[in-house]
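Ticket closed. Logging final result for 16129_t:CDS:1.
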Amino acid sequence: MSSSTIRLTVVHRSNSYNVTLEEDATVQSLQEQLAELTSVPPHLQKLLYKGKKNVEPEAALAIAGITNGLKITLLGNPESTIGELLEAEKQQKRKEDILKARAVGPRAKVRSTGPSKAYSNYRFHKIEPLQHLPEPATAEALLKRLAQDPAIVHIMQEHKFSVGLLTELAPHEHPGLLGLNKNAGEAILLRLRTDRYDGFRLYAEIRRVLCHELTHNVWGDHDDNFKKLNSRLNREVAEYERHLKDNTHTLGGAAYMPTSAGAEMMAEATVHVLGGASGASTSSNMTIAERRAQILEATLKRLQAEEQQIEDMCGSAPHQDSTSN
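Final structure:
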């Protein structure tokens, strides 16, 4: 290799490519070569590497911090894959519309008796995925599911929580964080994706982080006041979903059933209590109320253990600005 060339290693979707360029080549030249190798158009490419700088495509590689021997991660979908994702999203939306229409049926319109207008401000006012990351439509659907989760809606109304923006954290930009609350509710950012961008984290785990970050709407430090309110939110979510599991719960004339994540959480708690206990605790003589109390207690103990990990990976702090980690 001559001294006038540089060699790079580019990783895209578990595939590794060796790229050789002239030393005075531009970022655009690199992107064009990567487009030929991966079928990802230059305008959809996201290059991640140590020492990255925000520069124009016409800038030389050296100006962009791209030097010989550098390893670069390429994010981006080929155009054919994007078309497939859009079509799949379209088909999924069509199925959801059909199911919703069947669920509603020709029933008479129910007039709401609840103070819905009074609660209109206690919600997430804007939802926004990161468009430069893979599968933004899936991320947006996950954020909407969180915002519309009946248990989350319930605690936001009960505690009068209002959040300006619900969005996501990019793992490579905030590797040590699971959640971040900016300026007591101006924006909440959640880690939705796995570290390798090959999927999304479990819904129940993300929702627990959301409860943690909602607590920062009131308390900044992770002190006793914070822990008390956060525990209360987790308890209210568990109790609300337990009630929905046992009985259909009506809010403003509309019937809701528990989310799949909530049902999974209660099922897990049931196994923990009934499978891990013995003697009188699993006796058929136990009352329904006692059994429910044990399930709830087991759920809360598990949440408390997991909360410490969430706290360790929380970037929220009192009076932080938009650049805080």
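The radius of gyration is 24 Å. No further action required.
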